[in-house]
Amino acid sequence: MKKIVILSILALVISSCNEEKTDSSSQETERLNTIEGTWKMVYGEIRENDSLDIKDLTKTDFVKIINKDHFAFFNQNHNDGNGFYAGGGSYTLVGNKYTETLNYTSAEAIRGHSFPFTIEIKGDTLIQHGLEEVKEANIKRNILEKYIRVAYGQPG
Predict the structure, then answer these.
(1) β-bridge partners, 88
(2) Whose CA is closest to 59, among 35, 41, 38?
(3) Which H or E element spans position 30?
(4) Residues 25-51: pLDDT tens digits?
């Protein structure tokens, strides 16, 4: 009888240890899969009509920062301030459907517009693609952007 009680207690202890490992492993996976954090673009392309433009990232840094409900991005040339631009606003994320609403930008023609994208997160890589369309600004282009994670968002 004494052996059964000891074995039962031992089984309970081992079982609870395994649950903790699963929980922490699940939390780490969730943390890796979150969109929140700081991301640096490593590839960008724009398809417009019959042309393909691939962003030259050897001379510039493009960074996107995403928190719980807002995003911001900026582009900075390595050698000078020419070509600097930035923007930001709110976003929604439902499953893999990510929609940015550009509330802050110097480009008035696109301020206030929403841009729907599909995203995929693979480890430390964020892939974002979709159609950017603003009829008033005569913009209609498909984009594909790939980012690597530079930093994680703040723990919940």
Answers:
(1) 72, 104
(2) 41
(3) helix 2-33
(4) 555 445 556 999 999 999 999 999 999
Half-sphere exposure of residue 14, counting CA atoms within 13 Å on the CB side?
Answer: 6
Where does the chain show beta strands of DSSP type E? 37-48, 51-54, 60-66, 70-77, 85-94, 97-105, 114-122, 125-134, 139-152
Which structure tokens are listed for 101?
């609403």
Q: Which amino acid is at 137?
A: A
Residue 111 DSSP symbol: T
CA dihedral (105, 110, 113, 117) positive or negative: negative
State the pLDDT confidence band at 151, using cuts at 50, 70 and 90.
Answer: confident
pTM of the predicted structure, to 2 decimals: 0.77
Handedness of CA 70, 135, 49, 57 (dihedral sign): negative
- pLDDT tens digit sequence for 57-89: 999 999 999 999 999 999 999 988 788 999 999
Angle of CA points 63, 118, 111, to nearest 5°: 60
Instruction: Give the separation between CA 22 and CA 127, rounded to whole angstroms.
Output: 27
